[in-house]
Amino acid sequence: MPFHNIFKITKKKSKKPKPKIIADIHEKNSLILAELHENKNIKLEIKSLKIGDYLIGKTIIERKTVNDFISSMINKRLIQQLKQMKKYRQQLLIIEGIDEQELYRTDTKLNPNAIRGFILSIITNYQIPIIFTQDYQDTSQYLITLAKQQLKPLTETTLHHKIPKTIKEQKQYILEAFPNIGPITAKKLLKKFKNIHNTINATTEELQEILRNRAEGFKNLLEG
Fold it and tell me: Which residues are CB-contacts of 152 (< 8 A; sequence separation ≥ 6)?
């Protein structure tokens, strides 16, 4: 007669924790929440956030559509929001809809350079990185990716994970804020053009050596 060990303990496989995204209740009617709801690989929680629109780990996120960004720039509401966000360890500003809405608006009296200056002020004075997204789906993917990264060991591949201290780091930090400019590309641009001023004033042909097919888009963003 075979002997069965009735005292044998079978260990249950532990479920991997799902990355968590906390969304402010005021975002409940946004298309972003609909996208997040459909994703079964994350845990979505909706609650009232006194600061920001989304909280992922220790990162507070403020999302602005292009129209929201311009209006909150004019009425200075965004300045107050940025100051409040500093209460968190990490902050992120998302400007959404650059494919659908022109950032440098022609129907306002705002000078495009005023908008550029404000963006640079957010990055340099408030030390808050900015992500420009195409639409709500692109924003959703950024939030999901960030949430997944919270479960992984932190690896600093870009200066936007820390506060730049040296002048060299600050120059790279500013360039990384532009769409499609990563840390490697930013370093290449600074190596070739030496500083921010020379990079911004470089011709499309000169930029193509490093940016290739992205050069024209980069130049158009600068010139509005």
Answer: none
The topology under which CATH files domain 159-224 is DNA polymerase; domain 1 (1.10.150)
Counted residue by residue, the chain has a size of: 224
* Model confidence, pTM: 0.61
The pLDDT tens digits for 13-26 are 557 788 999 999 99
Domain ranges in the chain are: 17-152, 159-224
DSSP 31-99: HHHHHHHH-TTSEEEEE--SS-SEEETTEEEEEEEHHHHHHHHHTTHHHHHHHHHTTSSEEEEEEE-TT
- DSSP, collapsed to helix, strand or coil, labels residue 131 as strand
Q: What residues pair up with 64 in beta bridges, in sequence order?
A: 95
CA 2/CA 224 separation, integer angstroms: 82
Paired with 23 in beta bridges are: 46, 54
Compute the distance between CA of residue 196 and CA of residue 18 in angstroms, rounded to an integer: 41
